[in-house]
Design a protein that fits this description.
single chain, alpha+beta, 9 helices, 5-stranded mixed β-sheet, 7-stranded mixed β-sheet
Amino acid sequence: MASAAFADNPLPERDATQPDPNFHIYLCFGQSNMEGNAAIEEIDKTGVDERFQVMSVCDVDREINRVPGEWYTAIPPLCRAGTGLTPVDYFGRTMVEHLPSTHRVGVIVIAMGGSGIDAFDKENYKNYYATTDDWQRSLMDLYDGNPYAKMVAMAKKAQKDGVIKGILLHQGESNNTQGDWPMKVRKIYEDLIHDLNLDGDEVPLFAGETLRQEEGGVCYGHNDIIARLPDMMNAYVVSSEGCAGANDGLHFTAAGYRELGKHYAMSVLKNVYRMLPGMPERPAERLTLEETDMEIQIGTGKELNLTADFGGGYAENIASIASYELSNPAVARISNGRVIGLVQGETDVKATYTDPTGQTLTATFTLRATYFPFSEEFIHTDLFGEGIYDEATRSFSPGQYGQMGWVYSSGIDMSDYKYLVLKLDKPQNVNASINIYPESNIWTPNHSHPIEPNTTTIAIPLQEITYTSGDDLKGQPMDVSHVSIISLWAGAEGIIDVADMYLTNNDDYSSETTSISSVSTITVEEDEAIYNLQGIRMPDTDNLPRGIYIRGGKKFVIR
């Protein structure tokens, strides 16, 4: 069943010497859950549409009469001979079910049970191969010892036949809760984008969650790490909710793989093709927002909840397929229903949605972006200890020697600001300090700035701070171009009553937040004007001074 957004016509004749624009290819990699750990059942081998194809990758596939580099109807096993059912099986089945009959879907699957993320890295695979166990090396040897190079080689061959539309990942159990995992994934993703000459804005990464706790998953904590990816690259998290788990606590059952594959497909259909399968072909009655006054943390994304009510008990979050206009586009970027703050400031936002009948509905909300949002959802109370936060009064209670504050999954750049300013409602008496961490771990070297007991305004000169801990770094200047954690620490029990916290270049320590009316309304996707970090439009774009600027919703640097 194809979406009404596509014309469902028979496959047209085409020039076989050119890539088929309707042959959409997905690169799939990971460890055992991507490889396929459940037994393939008869139901999985029947009814596979010929429009769903798999490229053979390994010489071992000759055992099942497949030649590496050639396309075949995607009857499992898809990874290689001897592997089991994978989520890719039902990803492809679901895709061709909803795409028009003019379209084909091809997959290339490179996966190895037990493999850490470094096994897929363009450079780090060498050290991984040299230091891993013999059985891991034997799996890497199936891909000539270099899984990344094999993936690129096969992808380049596939590009002669079709168009790469996305990358599917399921990996993490072997890197469970490791804080540097997202950065390693980003490197692999960016290397693939570069080496395959792809457009990163057009080819997203889809990362599947590990087995959830309610299904007996033992690596469910890694899902918090996976959740950081959309803030670091063009990526989406694929939920594993409702996907049944095997008894080992690591893998899915066959039914779980089938469901997870459908989840991958629905995410791809939504975010690549802007399709919401199952939406009724009738007018929407109303458009409502979960929040009309929204606060977001700069450097951390947030999914919008924009609901179209079609009556009859049917409602759908259509945020990913709506369009948006911002009165101040320097403040934030909205893409596929996800908003990411760029600079401190506020903006009005107008959301527009056209329903299946052509009717247009709108909704408006106010968006406030800050490095230090005070909504409860952004305050990490357990950086060390079990702190308590009261959103209504902005009261922080870290507990003795406890820390609580803000975490920036992809890091924030504070180098263009002079001061970090903390305003208190009243002086504190808990021997508090503000801690700044370049790394995403409170046990790494940091700068700790004491909060004097008789003051309510604390200004940290960001261009002058040094490390106050770390044997090798103590006393050395700190680079604030990448900060991962900012916390409030207490040396005693009690409350720190916060009025505000912000970054500024004003020597009187006042805020320089950009206002809603500072820029005329501009459609996000069409805005190519250049703004500074204060939200001011730059009149002379050919001779910009050194600094950080925003164009088209993205930051760039003039050095």
